[in-house]
Amino acid sequence: MTDTDTGAQPGTAHARVLIATAVPAERDAVARALHDRPAIDVVAVGVGPAAAAAGTATALTTAELAGDPYTLVVSAGIGGGFSTPPGTVLIADAITVADLGAETPEGFLPVTELGFGTVTHRPPASLVRDLAAATGTAPAAVGTVLTVSTVTGTADRAALLARRHPGAVAEAMEGFGVAEAAAAHDVPVAEIRAVSNAVGPRDRAAWRIGDALAALTDAFGKSAPVLESWKNT
Ligand SMILES: O=C(O)c1cccc(C(=O)CC[C@H]2O[C@@H](n3cnc4c(=O)[nH]cnc43)[C@H](O)[C@@H]2O)c1
């Protein structure tokens, strides 16, 4: 296929978007909004940052080797909200791993303070702005989405995370892994979450997964034109 076939300017890579969810139910909720969008692929990469990084990196490498690389990666799914009700759509302006580091007698040290790696990936500001506008997301619902390896289950832990990350709007388990893979391939990243539950004392019966999945479908229906047309300038 040539650049002309895709409608892109000659010599300009056409947009190709990879959306990574944790589980098939999330993948299907996103994909429901994306029929007739051949430039966007949705894959379920597994639960947790390690599975997410491995699955995303595999998809990125496969596309590169096929000569049709992805130009944008999105981590998507349901998540715990810090202060917004189930069904709220949240957009990350920072994707931060909350529990990568070391406990010390003086408290938690992020891995960067140990001299390693990174703890935050920042989606491009113009993409965050365009996604928020397209989905009608309020400014208060744009913020840091934390990545955790253990779902928060107590009020104490929720308060500690909120104190440590005052800009946090949500926690989930994959964003940082997806972002690490995207960064390794030099591809920009975004994260979109729909709230299924509150971050706090564990109450699995109170999770509103159906509401969150429906909100996810709606958000991706509205976001698809932005994802397809957004250019990293
Ligand atoms: O049981 C189902 O039908 C079902 C359908 C879709 C998704 C699920 C999940 O359990 C997804 C797990 C996924 O959700 C994220 N998540 C949601 N709430 C939180 C939270 O409070 N803290 C951290 N992560 C959360 C997370 O990304 C998981 O991978 C079930």
UniProtKB/TrEMBL annotation:
Instruction: Report the residue ranges that make up the Nucleoside phosphorylase domain in this protein.
Output: 42-203
Q: Which Pfam families match?
A: PNP_UDP_1
Q: Which terms does the record give in the GO molecular function aspect?
A: hydrolase activity, acting on glycosyl bonds
Pathway, per record: Quinol/quinone metabolism; menaquinone biosynthesis
Its EC number(s) = 3.2.2.26
Q: Known InterPro entries for this protein?
A: FL_hydrolase_MqnB, Nucleoside_phosphorylase_d, Nucleoside_phosphorylase_sf
SUPFAM superfamilies membership: Purine and uridine phosphorylases
Keywords assigned by UniProt, alphabetized? Glycosidase, Hydrolase, Menaquinone biosynthesis
Reaction catalyzed: futalosine + H2O = dehypoxanthine futalosine + hypoxanthine
Q: What HAMAP family does its record include?
A: MqnB (MF_00991)
Q: What does this protein do?
A: Catalyzes the hydrolysis of futalosine (FL) to dehypoxanthine futalosine (DHFL) and hypoxanthine, a step in the biosynthesis of menaquinone (MK, vitamin K2).
The similarity annotation says: Belongs to the PNP/UDP phosphorylase family. Futalosine hydrolase subfamily.
Protein name from the UniProt record: Futalosine hydrolase
Task: Give the organism the record lists.
Answer: Streptomyces kunmingensis
Per the UniProt record, the lineage of the source organism begins with: Bacteria, Bacillati, Actinomycetota, Actinomycetes, Kitasatosporales
